[in-house]
Amino acid sequence: MSQTLAMTVNGRAVSVTVDDPEMPLLYALRNDLGLTGPHYGCGLGQCGACTVHVDGVAARSCQLPVGAMAGKRITTLEGLGTAGKPHPVQAAFIAEQAVQCGYCANGMIMESASFLAQTPKPTEAQVREALASNICRCGTQPRVVRAVLRAAAQA
Amino acid sequence: MDGMQLSRRGLFGTGGALVVSFALGGAKPAAAWTEKPVALEQVDSFLAIDAQGRVTTYVGKVDLGTGLRTGFAQIAADELDVPMTAVSVVEGDTALTPDQGPTYGSLGIQIGGVQLRQAAATARALLVAEAASRFGLPAETLRTEDGAAIAPDGRRIAYAALVGGKAFSRAVDPGATIKPPEARKVVGKPVPRVDIPDKVMGRFAYVHDLKLPGMLHGRAVRPPAMGAVAEAVDAASVAGIPGIVKVVHEKGFVGVVAKTEWAAIKAQAALKVRWSAWAGLPEQAKLWEHVRATPVAQRQVTSEKGDPATAIKGAATTLSASYDFAIHTHGSMGPSCAVAEFKDGRLTVWTASQATHNLRKQLALMLGQPVEQVRCIYQEGAGCYGRNGHEDAAADAVLLAKAVGKPVRVQWMRAEEHGWDPKGPPTLIDLRAGLDAQGKVVGWESEAFIPKGAGGNVDLVAAELGGLPRENLLSPGNIVHNLAVPYGFPAVRTTCLRLESTPFRPSWIRTPGRMQNTYASEAFLDELAAAAGKDPLQFRLENLDDPRGREVLERCARLANWQARPSPQRDQSGEILRGRGVTYVKYELVRTYVAGVAEVEVNRRTGEIRVTEFFCTHDCGQIINPDAVTAQIEGNVVSTLSRTLKEELTFDRGTVTSLDWASYRTITFPEVPKITVELIDRPAEKPWGAGEPAAAIVPSAVSNAVYDATGVRLRSVPFSPAKVRAALQGA
Ligand code: FES
Ligand code: FES
Prior knowledge:
Largest interface: A-B, 60 and 59 residues
Keywords (chain A): 2Fe-2S, Iron, Iron-sulfur, Metal-binding, Oxidoreductase
Helix content of chain A: 25-40%
Protein name (chain A): (2Fe-2S)-binding protein
CATH topology of the largest domain in chain B: Aldehyde Oxidoreductase, domain 4
Strand order of the largest sheet of chain A: 2-1-5-3-4
Structural class of chain B: alpha+beta
Strand content of chain B: 15-25%
Bound molecules: FE2/S2 (inorganic) cluster
Radius of gyration of chain A: 15 Å
Number of helices of chain B: 20
Helix content of chain B: 25-40%
Number of strands of chain A: 5
Organism (chain A): Dankookia rubra
Number of domains of chain B: 3
InterPro entries (chain A): 2Fe-2S-bd, 2Fe-2S-bd_dom_sf, 2Fe-2S_ferredoxin-like_sf, 2Fe-2S_ferredoxin-type, 2Fe2S_fd_BS, Beta-grasp_dom_sf, Diverse_Oxidoreductases
Strand order of the largest sheet of chain B: 11-12-9-19-16-17-18
Pfam families (chain A): Fer2, Fer2_2
Shape of chain B: globular
CATH class of the largest domain in chain B: Alpha Beta
Number of helices of chain A: 6
Oligomer: heterodimer
CATH class of the largest domain in chain A: Alpha Beta
């Protein structure tokens, strides 16, 4: 039984037609809306690769049934900043070269942007704690911490 | 194409006579599916310059997230004298790029970059020769800059006007002069990586993001026990899932194809299959007994000098120990993914494989199709640290695409990645040594128990399960390195016992063998230093002649403010004990030198180890991009600390049980230490690898630091709190 859901994604009103409202938001973003910034990493809420903002707060899109997203305001990495005006966290990730394969970077950036919105002047320990459930297998953690602190210092 | 070529005479042979020397387009070999020359000895295989002067480089080595792409662009830009922005890099496309071997062994720059550099140097010489003949001047009087050849009187001809859009049609000249260090503009500089802005802005196209017209989504259905066979598949059990296209059952290979990814995921979970029983794995609690009991296929002596057995027997002090290293998964952040398409009888596969040229052969073999009809195109995926599941996902996609006659994308689920990627094999190392009365090493013997190895490929899961043709080799090869030690002991024998089998499909994971062997040797060396009552740094230096080796160690000691004294430290009071450990490797005993110092805090009550600082000094010869090398070292330290302290595959008699990030623990942000890196750049030397060597020193640095803190020696990776507590209680 397909169903059409209206939501706002990256500032644009969109509708998604799905035959299963239990499908995680992640697949609607990636496959129906062509927004591939969020990645599938675990589908279990354990790694952070799929993170988006829902009504301004970081959330793991692999854990959100798309059916519950009607009327929500969703931001993906693509909508966080623009090429001309990257979000301060994005600019800091570039400045610190805080990326290797970058598969985790979506989660690192989206989680950090949401965290800094709540905690604009964090300590290093707070940054590390905020990212404690974000995994990176390439070992970018030292640079990610530096990037988040840089973004905080420049905001 | 050949018919359009106006002259094939070599410029070097014509003394610079005025000839229209560049062919239009490239010669196309008939046999293989190639769209341009790809032979290793041809300039055109590596680069092309178009009518706008843009340079496209073609490399068989691929960027696995390490920054190799940027390094290649730097090398080509400097060697050709073009701006970096004019250079683009095509990687790992079997129809376009030369086969430079898989991207492994920290050879991306060392081999891949050096071959590209020689091709670019040859191209530059050809461009200069052509410009010289047009100017009517000797080639030596010309210089190149910003994509043009320039005469002493200031006249310039752009490369685009010299060769734009045409082929060089010349062999790579092994004697072509490479830019001397002082003439390099971007090589050796911390140039920002070309891929990072797109990755940070969400614009980067990973293989996971590829969408072809008419593409369907597939998932393989794996047996619940690794060796179980599908006896019956009930396609009706998923017929009710909207969007289901087909259930595929080919011998032991089972999979589903659907119109949407979510439908494929649901069908994968819901499909009813009757599986045979299988319980062929050893009991995990008896893993090391199992390893010791496995028949030895081959004894491979990797270094031999004098008569260590007799020397040890007669020594004043004799030590022996066994070290083990757990089974690890790659655990790539993004589960493996590929897209396969059959069109006009030919197969194209988009893959993040580290070895597209090899994968192509494996897929052709599996299908019984000529290799000429298969093309593999590299598209970056999540970082892989050796041969992970990318190739297997490709085989899954191929079988499913073939079954439905449409392009199919497969991405593994997390449990498949943790369960089915090939594993770093369990490694066990026995060591014995003797010291004389002055504390000098008189003899050293070690034996590593590692699987039999071959230089071939890791078999494809789908081919194995489906009973399809495959190479059937037990990889990995090359994991014997660094059992031989870099120290000048008077009597040494190091032997690899190559085992007939190992519980899981083995493959290479970052620093394979070199890490396990270095870990055992460098920790055991520390045991000897302690038995001799000597400072561990001094003990190493006493046995090391190599000046570059001494330099990394001495500089690392300064970096870490090393205080000379024997281990363990004296203060054993309080709950938290602090210590430091030093360690050293000369990679494969022939290249990159690395020294490290770890500082740790050990909680005596909980058994937790906190690595607070890690210092690393690194000499990989010529550095192409110091920031990228630093990033590799940091990555090596972080991921190997994760492996050393936490990672361990768990399994029952049928299959892997550590199938997610909760059961296969990895390092978290609060656990990452402060890392300080010191690079030694040698611009006049060869560039050596940096992707792996620093990983080799990490486990021994931690073992040595924990010993220094506590007086207790850890010899079993991972150094879990339970093992630390047990060791402390036993002390
Ligand atoms: S994919 Fe959502 S947390 Fe891992
Ligand atoms: S950069 Fe590769 S997983 Fe983080």
